[in-house]
Design a protein that fits this description.
- There is one protein chain.
- The protein is mainly β and 76 residues long.
- The protein has one domain.
- The protein is built from no helices and 5 strands.
- A 5-stranded antiparallel sheet has the order 3-2-1-4-5, with no helix packed on it.
- A hairpin with a 2-residue loop joins strand 2 and strand 3 (33-36).
- The protein starts with 7 loop residues before the first strand and ends with a strand.
């Protein structure tokens, strides 16, 4: 992934089968790799269908606003 732009961050979302989006982590990417925001707590979701990463304003947001940068389907 490209380094985070100033004032922007990446946010990991767990998406449930009914399309509820749950914030899992906020992190930045620098020239030396990923730096996780220690203030963010991994969210718990009973069933996760998809994990996705969006680019968001620094500090993260309650629901995704940015375009999906990475996505992966989980489970079968």
């Amino acid at each position: 992934m490209k380094p985070s732009d100033p004032g922007r961050t990446y946010q990991l979302w767990f998406i449930t089968p009914d399309e509820k989006k749950v914030s899992a982590a906020v992190f930045d990417v620098g020239r030396r790799g990923v730096r996780r925001d220690r203030r963010a707590r991994a969210a718990r979701a009973r069933k996760i269908a998809v994990a996705a990463v969006t680019e968001e304003p620094a500090g993260g947001v309650p629901q995704p606003t940015g375009a999906i940068q990475l996505v992966g389907q989980l489970g079968t």
